[in-house]
Amino acid sequence: MTAERLDQPRDLRRTLRPHYDPEAFGRLSERIARFLGTARFIVYMTVVVAVWVLWNAVAPAELAFDPYPFIFLTLMLSLQASYAAPLILLAQNRQADRDRVQYEQDREAAERNQAEIEYLTREIAALRMALNEVATRDYLRSELQHLLEELRERP
To answer: Is residue 135 part of a domain?
Structure first.
């Protein structure tokens, strides 16, 4: 048995599983899910199904590839649905993860804002208390007026 050297990178392991980038796959699934939720997709699917049914119902027997009851069409629609549902769920999960992160950031910002508001409220209260102890210009003017009146009244 040979000892592994920690200063050397490991040899690449060959696996039978295909390698894929989960982030790229997630972005692709979101794009597909976004497209599946559009009116354009509904129109495209309606046109494809209508053309399929009309072709196989009206075309001569040798050109019809899926005669009534359109079993191959049913198989294709089921295959499309079996891929669409997991892609939509994956896109929803990714959106839920983004929403959770956004909610956490919003909550932290709200906490910071609340702390800042409380600090400013305390500062304003301290300023008001300090202003009550400071002689204002009007107060000084009225005191000087009283003194002046007292001096005038003395002989």
So the answer is: yes
